[in-house]
Design goal:
4-stranded antiparallel β-sheet; binds zinc ion; 433 residues; alpha/beta
């Protein structure tokens, strides 16, 4: 096949419109047809918010959704896949001719909420986008008159994004093996095919001192609160020497029990972020020196415990994001400029780790509100009817991009090439097979 050529589709097409474009239209129609079911799915998750690793009701709602999708038993659903609240649902077209390995496209659903403020990050909409895009691709391929291409649509329910990193558990369990490209989308304030989500390392720091009467025998005490305060200040001083792209933020979780007792115990929680996994250990080392210095100065002992999982930065895949933008524009999505995209505000996500094992796209989408993520106003917006239009439009753009990947072998090659180059840039290639 020559570069740029599309894989031939079975069946006819109207003159002037390529068969692939018609197929994309069909995917969008299928998503519209399922709009009510998809909206109900998202609302059910939204109305009963659950925290990381505890998304039992959302898991039930999603697995039932795929089990009941017509025609009956078309999705092979594995509830409690690798984790209690993760799942996997697979669909393959009937009558695939080729015996070769199918192209496996993954659609990710998140569904955890935040403590106290519910779905303030709109993960109910992420679940809906993932489900909708998968239904769109399935619907389009089912309509092919001839033998379908060897494709497997895989929906992965990935719990615990806000805390813990369920995708990292799933990577370690092999859930992403054999996937060729993965797709998901995250609610935001703007439409961006990519935002530079950064790498993150979390620590819990504990200082152990010695209690004493703060008025009668203060010299007998070893003050753990002082150690925490010094650590906080050490890091604040370090900020002047930090790169502008680094972020350090922390809280004093425990700082004593009563003013007349010299605090014998204190605890801090800190998050460190840097644009890449190359820079993150540099920052972490400097920060740990700050914690140790505070222990030395006060005579406390210190325990520094890293979180179970580091979140990796999200690797860009330009070929994939370009295809997504092209499809999105056809649906009327207005994207922020590439410059704004690359310099935009960002957080961290366990999807970053996914992009180190398989090429993927994690675009952001506007949901009809200017409220900011992680606020009560955003919770309201994520549950509103207005968000539905934007959510389904994003799902359509993802489904259309997936169809490009299926029917343009040249694009898939470029996506794989981008992936390799990014890993090389991160000096990570040796760890990925
Ligand atoms: Zn989120
Ligand atoms: Zn969030």
């Amino acid at each position: 096949m020559r570069p740029g050529e599309e894989r031939p589709l079975e069946g006819g097409a109207c003159s002037g419109v390529s068969q692939l474009e018609l197929l994309k239209l069909r995917a969008a129609e299928r998503i519209d047809e399922a709009a009510e079911r998809l909206g109900a799915l998202s609302r059910a998750i939204w109305s009963e918010p659950e925290l990381a690793y505890e998304e039992h009701r959302a898991h039930g709602v999603l697995t039932r959704f795929f089990e009941r999708e017509p025609p009956a038993a078309s999705w092979a659903v594995q509830p409690h896949y690798q984790l209690a609240t993760a799942f996997r649902a697979e669909w393959e077209p009937l009558g695939v001719r080729a015996a070769r390995r199918p192209l496996q496209l993954g659609f990710l659903c998140e569904y955890d909420a935040l403590p106290g403020i519910g779905h303030a990050c709109g993960h109910n909409l992420i679940a809906e986008v993932g489900a909708a895009a998968a239904l769109g691709v399935k619907g389009a391929l089912e309509g092919l008159p001839g033998p379908p291409p060897p494709v497997k649509v895989v929906v992965l329910g990935t719990p615990a994004e806000e805390d813990g990193g369920g995708k990292i558990d799933l990577i370690e369990a092999g859930a992403f093996k054999n996937l060729d490209v993965v797709f998901m989308a995250h609610p935001s304030q703007e439409n961006a095919a990519y935002l530079p989500d950064v790498a993150e390392h979390d620590v819990i720091v504990k200082y152990y001192g010695k209690a004493s009467h703060a008025a009668a025998y203060p010299w007998e005490g070893v003050n753990a609160l002082d150690a925490a305060v010094l650590a906080y200040n050490n890091l604040s001083v370090l900020r002047q020497q930090m790169k502008p792209t680094w972020r350090v933020h922390g809280i004093i979780k425990s700082g004593g029990v009563k003013p007349n007792i010299i605090p014998s115990y204190s605890e801090l929680i800190y998050y460190f972020r840097a644009p890449s996994m190359k820079e993150l250990p540099v920052l972490t080392k400097k920060a740990e020196d700050c914690f140790r210095a505070a222990a030395l100065a006060t005579g406390c002992t210190v325990e520094i415990k890293g979180g179970a999982h580091d979140y990796y930065n999200v690797l860009p895949n330009k070929s994939l994001w370009k295809a997504y933008i092209e499809n999105g524009k056809k649906l009327g999505i207005e994207f922020i400029s590439e410059d704004a995209m690359l310099n935009g505000p960002s957080g961290s996500t366990d999807f970053g780790n996914v992009t180190f094992v398989v090429p993927g796209i994690h675009p952001y989408f506007y949901i009809g509100s200017n409220a900011l993520n992680h606020t009560e106003q955003y919770t309201e917006a994520a549950g509103s009817q207005e968000a539905q239009f934007y959510t389904l439009r994003t799902a359509k753009a993802l489904a259309m991009t997936a169809l490009d990947v299926i029917f343009k072998p040249e694009l898939l090659e470029k996506i794989k090439e981008d992936f390799k180059l990014q890993l090389q840039e991160e000096e990570f290639l040796n760890t990925v097979e």
